[in-house]
Design brief:
The complex is a heterodimer. By secondary structure, chain A is α+β, with helices and mostly antiparallel strands. Chain A has 3 domains: 7-122, Orthogonal Bundle (Butyryl-Coa Dehydrogenase, subunit A, domain 1); 125-230, Butyryl-CoA Dehydrogenase, subunit A, domain 2; 249-378, Up-down Bundle (Butyryl-CoA Dehydrogenase, subunit A, domain 3), CATH 1.20.140.10. Chain A has 14 helices and 10 strands. Chain A has helices at residues 7-23, 28-34, 39-48, 66-79, 83-103, 106-118, 179-182, 233-247, 250-269, 281-309, 315-340, 342-345, 351-360, 368-378; strands spanning 123-126, 142-146, 149-160, 167-173, 183-189, 195-200, 211-222, 226-227, 271-272, 275-276. Chain A has a 4-stranded mixed sheet with strand order 1-4-5-8. Chain A has a 4-stranded antiparallel sheet with strand order 2-3-7-6, with no helix packed on it. Chain A has a two-stranded antiparallel sheet with strand order 9-10. In chain A, strand 9 (271-272) and strand 10 (275-276) form a beta hairpin. Chain B is mainly α. Helix content of chain B is 42%, strand content 0%. Chain B has 3 helices and no strands. The radius of gyration of chain B is 12 Å and the shape is globular. The A-B interface holds A 102-103, 137, 178-181, 228-229, 231-232, 234-235, 238-239, 242, 311-313, 315-316, 373-374, 377-378, 380 and B 12, 27, 29-30, 32, 34-41, 43-44, 47, 53-62, 64-65. The structure holds flavin-adenine dinucleotide (FAD). Flavin-adenine dinucleotide (FAD) is lined by residues 91, 124-128, 133-134, 158-160, 206, 360, 363-364, 366-367, 369-370, 373 of chain A.
């Protein structure tokens, strides 16, 4: 594995940092407080080419390789302080766009990918339910065929982007089939009869990323909107989860880099007891740990992305990358706050926001405990 | 190929010894032998053992219903390296 960057990758990274600083952070403190999504920032990202990055050129995307996509997302996390916006982008890219790329018919790809890439549409997938989270395949949402339609009934919870979503990949189970073969996935558009976003949900962090509950009440979906074959739901979900776990925390690498640089700068300039606080080993050790975690996380994320790029199975490596990076991000945010003292705890520092945003990463895309379950199973336990 | 895959599933995937010995036609899905992670482990094994790449889109129930259907799927991939045992055992 050679992770040295090409001149083109370096330029793209620099351009993404520059773009993020210029266009994505305005009014963040207020938007974060109010829990507001920014459609302007969403469109600006599309114009820059973020949403289309991993989509093949023949389907209207940039056709960037996964490592390049990861590098750009890392740059976005470095330049942009709005982790909620980046999370919403990630949710769409990995849980909806990539399944469309891999499993979609040409008609489905044509119907949704251009709008998603252009920033005209917002999407996500809907898997989690009130009674099924980690045990996702025990879902209660049911699907039944009715002529040229499917009828969906159930409730989906904690769905990112739901309040602003135009299209959602909804997973549902066929009654009476074995669990592994029971799940199918459907592209459900806003406005479909029987589909409602019943309420928005207020969160601790990632507050600029909207979230909601979805109710499916005899929701009539055309059979042409089934993604993949009947029963392919588990394959679709597993495929998108591997992509998501590999790539969703690339931006956290950038955020941790930013936290590290801010902590070094603060520890050099802040003086107590007549010297820079960085001269106290209790402080400098925190900074050293921040560096260590960041570099280890970076290698794990790049490795998972590289394997995915080679078309190799990256389940274990993706789980390791997701687990380590999410926990490193929480630890890095705590260290950064501690190094900055009271200032780090203040909203104006922005560091406390990073901590609130980071905590979610140990829950979404499979909790830390579930990543450890995956690692143990893959190791033969 | 049937023996290699049956041995692997019997040794590494089956949790309930009452389900052994495993028939090649026994449904891995109806019996609950194969869960999501069990399937993904099996895929890693098959890829290494038979030198094939199993694409995500192929991880559908029809291909993993039983030892027989796994082998039928792998044979359908012949020419791409499937069926050529690599490694040992
Ligand atoms: C910010 C955010 C965004 C999200 N976005 C989406 C989305 O867009 N679409 C979507 O479908 N879902 C989404 N989710 C839901 C997310 O996928 C679930 O929260 C997650 O899978 C965990 O499920 P749960 O919250 O029901 O927890 P539970 O599964 O109830 O788990 C509760 C606790 O028990 C532990 N636990 C459970 N099973 C085991 C086990 N076998 N071994 C050890 N420990 C275990 C868990 O690790 C956790 O600590 C989002 C969640 C968050 C926080």
């Amino acid at each position: 594995m050679d992770f040295s960057l090409s001149a083109e990758q370096r330029e793209l990274k620099a351009a993404a940092v520059d773009f993020a600083r210029r266009e994505l952070d305005s009014g963040l403190a207020e938007r974060e407080q109010a829990g507001e999504f920014s459609p302007q920032a969403w469109r600006a990202c599309a114009k820059f080419g973020i949403q289309g990055l991993p989509v093949p050129a023949e389907l209207g995307g940039a056709g960037a390789d996964i490592l390049t996509t990861v590098l750009v997302m890392e740059a976005l996390g470095y330049g942009c302080h709005d982790n909620g916006l980046i999370f919403s982008l990630n949710a769409q890219m990995w849980s909806l766009q990539m399944p469309l790329v891999k499993f979609g018919t040409p008609a489905q790809q044509q119907a949704y990918l251009p709008g998603l890439i252009a920033g005209d549409l917002v999407g996500v997938h809907a898997m989690t339910e009130p009674e099924s989270g980690s045990d996702a395949f025990s879902m209660r949402t049911r699907v039944e065929r009715e002529g040229d339609f499917y009828l969906l009934n159930g409730i989906k919870l904690y769905i990112t982007n739901a309040p602003v979503a135009d299209v959602m990949l909804v997973f549902a189970a066929h009654p009476g089939k074995p669990k592994m073969a029971a799940i199918s996935a459907f592209l459900v558009e806003k406005g479909t009869p029987g589909f409602t976003v019943s309420r928005g949900m207020d969160k601790m962090g990632l507050r600029t990323s909207p979230m909601g509950e979805v109710v499916l009440d005899d929701c009539r979906v055309p059979a042409a909107n089934r993604l993949g074959s009947e029963g392919a739901g588990m394959a679709i979900f597993n495929s998108s989860m591997t992509w998501e776990r590999s790539c969703i925390l690339a931006s956290a690498l950038g955020t941790m880099q930013r936290q590290l640089e801010a902590s070094v700068a603060y520890a050099r300039t802040r003086k107590q007891f007549g010297q820079s606080i960085g001269k106290f080993q209790a402080v400098s050790s925190k900074v050293a740990d921040m560096y260590l975690r960041l570099e280890a996380a970076r290698l794990l994320v790049y490795q998972a992305a590289w394997l995915g790029q080679q078309g190799k199975s990256a389940l274990t490596e993706a789980a390791a990358a997701k687990l380590f990076t999410s926990e490193a991000w929480v630890a890095s945010s705590l260290d950064a706050i501690q190094v900055h003292g009271a200032y780090g705890y203040m909203k104006e520092s922005g560091i406390e926001r990073d901590l609130r945003d980071a905590i979610a990463s140990t829950i979404y895309s499979g909790t830390s405990e579930i990543q450890r379950v995956i690692l143990a199973r893959m190791l033969g336990l | 190929m049937e023996t290699v895959i049956n041995d692997y599933i019997s040794r590494e995937v089956v949790q309930d010894a009452a389900l052994l010995p495993l028939g090649n036609a026994t449904s891995l899905l109806e019996t609950g032998i194969l869960d999501s992670l069990g399937l993904l482990r099996l895929v890693v094994f098959v890829q290494e053992r038979f030198g094939v790449t199993v694409d995500d889109v192929d991880l559908i129930p029809e291909h993993f219903e039983s030892v027989d259907s796994i082998c039928a799927y792998l044979r359908s991939r012949d020419g791409e390296g499937a069926g050529r045992a690599v490694g040992h055992g």
